[in-house]
Structure formats: structure tokens, C-alpha cells
Hints:
Layout: H1 20-30, H2 35-54, H3 59-90, H4 94-115, H5 124-152, H6 157-175
Helix pairs in contact: 1-6, 2-3, 2-5, 2-6, 3-4, 3-6, 4-5
Amino acid sequence: MAATKSSAPTKSAKAKPASKTARRTERAASKPVDAIKLLKDDHKEVKTFFSLYEDLDDEAEKQALADKICLALTVHAQIEEIYYPATRAAIDDDDLLDEAEVEHASAKQLIAEIQAMKASDRLFDAKVTVLGEYIDHHVGEEENEMFPESRDSELDLKALGEQLAARKAELMAQIGA
């Protein structure tokens, strides 16, 4: 007689998180990922958000997407607070890391200004546009200078990636994303 599968859930079965974002975040946290790949994936996502923003006319849609951009950048900046010190210890390029630190502080200020505004405010679009240009410049330096130096160093990018993914999952859970 053939064995049949029980329809009762097993102990090892996990309940699926409610949203696609939560499921994606959980999967990302459960797989070891290279730190640079994780950061580049964030860069790609935010670049897409800025591109979508350029095509919007509706103020409610602009507000929602600007909020999403600010949230994504805030989480990204927080996980980079793990990446940067590890990189500073592994590579010999203090100038590059100092510039990145200043760029982060400036971006945080602009994000705070955008979050305090409404899409109907006169400078809202300009600030989102400038933030996008600023982030594009910052990403270029990271991807073309810092990341290659990190790859060439003794930095354990897999272990660092696990730390970044865990922190990102923690932050996303805190905000309910």
C-alpha cells in the first residue's frame, strides 16, 4: 500500500509572513549573501524608485514613493553603518571612507527635510530630484571604488553579508515592512 502524505503541518513547517516584502526579507536573511551583492541590490532598487518618481504627476503617488525612497535609504544607511567600519579596517583609503561618511550625513539631512514635507510643497520635487542625483553620485563611488577595494582586501564579505542581511531583516521587521 502506498504511503500518503499527512495534511497536518509538520513541526518544521514555518508560517509564511503576511507580505511579499516580508517573505523576501526572510528569504534574504536565511541565505548567506555577499555584502557587496546585498548593497548593490539595494542600490538597484532605489535607483528604480527614483526613475519611477520622475514619471509621476499625482501628488499622492509622489508622496507614497518619496516615503518609500526615504525608508529604503534610511535602512540602507543603517546597514552601511556595519559595512563601513569593517571596510575601514580592511582597506587603506581613509579619504574615500571619510567622503562617504560626509555624504551619508548630508543625505540623512535631505531625507529628513523630505519626510517633513508634503508632495504639494514647492521644493518637494526638487529635493527628491537632488537626493536622487546625490545618491547616484554616492553609489558610483561605492561601486566603482570602495567595493573593488573591499573585494581585494581580506574582508570576509560572506560573513559581513550575513550581518547586513540580519540587521536589514531586523530593521524591516521593526517598521512592519
